[in-house]
Structures are given as structure tokens and as C-alpha cells.
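During the reporting period the student researcher (J.K.) took over the structure-prediction task from the postdoctoral fellow and processed the backlog of single-chain submissions. One of the processed entries is reproduced below for the supervisory committee.
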Amino acid sequence: MSAEKKIALVTGGARGIGFAIVERLASDGCAVVIADIIKDVAAESTEKLSSRGIECIAVTGDVSRPDDVESMFKMAGERLGTPDILVNNAGITRDNFLMRMSEQEWDSVLNINLKGSYLCSKAASKGMMKKRWGRIVNISSVVGVMGNAGQANYAASKAGLIGFTKSLAKELAGRNITVNAVAPGYIETEMTENLPGAAKENFLKIIPLKRAGKPGDVAGIVSFLVSDGADYVTGQVIHCDGGMVM
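J.K. obtained the following C-alpha cells:
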């Protein structure tokens, strides 16, 4: 990270992979904004970091709602400053086989995972273009590359995020703004700990490293992508999956 303190906003940043990213960027010297829909959890995570002397605030809202996104970025700007770094991490699953999948299950996943990234990137890029510097990192998934039965909605949203990443990278490159994606595989989080034992074993069978990843593994890649060391990296999808997809 450069000597000048950067401001990083992480959606879905109150727990799991998002909170690991927040912690890592804070340790890199960033002031951090935890953007999350769950107000109490966001406040608790912020207090935890603030007690360690980290400059951190929480903003709450639904990333799929334009008014909420506008409010979150306005609050972040007033309290810390315009974000230099955006990590689109907020995501949900509503797994079901296509024949049983409701329209609501489809729409809710696409709205949070894909539309939310569009709205937040649009809001963040305005300030970044004025500064002629910015970093956007989208958290996709190996499922967006390889697909997965019972996750047509999730896979579509994460595949869409990859196309979004590459297109936005081309649009914003002229203003010194890089846009990249990270595609995690099987990472130990609250979302995956509820998987049946057989499902976990099946995942481990197709991972060459024979272990699940940690949230910190994803955070380390994000840290690199927003650093000065990645100035010449844009439009890329970095897999963090123990070799699941090669």
C-alpha cells in the first residue's frame, strides 16, 4: 500500500470472508468501512476493530437497493472520505434444483450478488474517477466457472460477476482504476459449515491440496490486488481454491 492512507469499503464485511478482508486491509494501513445489511453484527465487528485502534466505521443497507447504496456511500464519504477501494463481497445462496427453484429464489440471489456489485461499483467509481485512482475487487466463485448442480442462480450470478469484472476493467483503465475478481473455492465459513459431511468430503476429493481454504487465504489475494504491487493487473480472475479448477 502507498504511504497515503486509503479508504476501503467492503460489502458483506461484518463476518466470514468479508470480515477477514476488512481485517487484512486494516492491517495494511487502510481506514475501513464495513457495509452490511445486519446492523447489529456490523456494529459489533466495528467495535472489535475500533478497540484495537483501527479506523473503522459501519454503514448498513441492502446492496440491491439503489437508495440504500447511495446512503451508505454518502455516510462513508461524510465520516471517512470517498472510498479508494471497493470490495464487492456481499452474497447469498438460495440453493435448489431448477425445476423446484422459485422466481424469488432466483431474483434474490441475482439481485444481491450481481446487481449489488453493479450498484456499488457505479457509486464508488465516481469518486475514483475524480481521483484518477481506484481498486475494485469482486468476489466471484469457482462455481461461476465450473457450475454446480442445485446452484443455477448462484452460478449465474458469479459467472455474471466475472463478465462484469472484465467489462468494467476496460471501461475504467484509462482513469487508473483496476478491476479484478477473486474466485474462492471451498472456504471454511458459516455458510459452508452447515454443509452435510458427505458434501464436504466430496469437495475435498476434488481439491489437490486436500484441505479447505481459510477466509484469510482470500483476504491475502485481495490485499495484493489493491496494493501498489498490482498496478499492472486488471481484468483478471484469481482462483483461490486449492487447485479445484485449473
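The committee noted the following: The longest strand covers residues 177-184.
J.K. will present the remaining backlog at the next meeting.
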